[in-house]
Amino acid sequence: VHGNLLAAKAPDAVGQVMNLATGASISLLDLSSKLNTLMDIDLEPLHAPERPGDIKHSLADITLARRLLNYEPIVDFETGLKQTLDWYVSKS
Asked: What's the helix, strand, coil split of the chain in %, to 5?
């Protein structure tokens, strides 16, 4: 949300496509572990054979957002994940 608000006020961002992310890589195993901790559960991930086209590593490049918007993440991944879970719980 923070990045979108910055983009709405940045004339140089018009027509640009950029990533708004943490600038860090989070593995699926890390995500699974954090969800287990935050939800107080103990689910084991199921590992299946690799499929064609699977992405092994990804990292959103936020360089353009930093340059055009002066963007820096203000919520770390774990805090954002907890806030998202809390929102879903409040809606159920």
From this structure: 50, 0, 50
Cα-atom radius of gyration of the chain, to the nearest Å? 17
φ, ψ (nearest 5 deg) of residue 82: -65, -45
Contact status, residue 18 vs residue 61, Cβ threshold 8 Å:
no
The pair of structure tokens assigned to 75 is 């919520």
Per residue in 30-72, pLDDT (tens digit) is 999 999 999 999 999 999 999 999 998 999 999 999 999 999 9
> Which of 44, 19, 26, 37 lies closest to 82, judged by CA?
37
Spatial separation of the C-alpha atoms in residues 81 and 83, rounded to whole Å: 5
CA quadruple 31, 23, 57, 64: dihedral positive or negative?
positive
Q: How big is the chain, counted in residues?
A: 92
Question: Please, is 69 exposed, middle or buried when counting C-beta atoms within 10 Å of its C-beta (0-12, 13-18, 19+)?
Answer: buried
Closest CA to 3 of 61, 80, 65, 83: 65
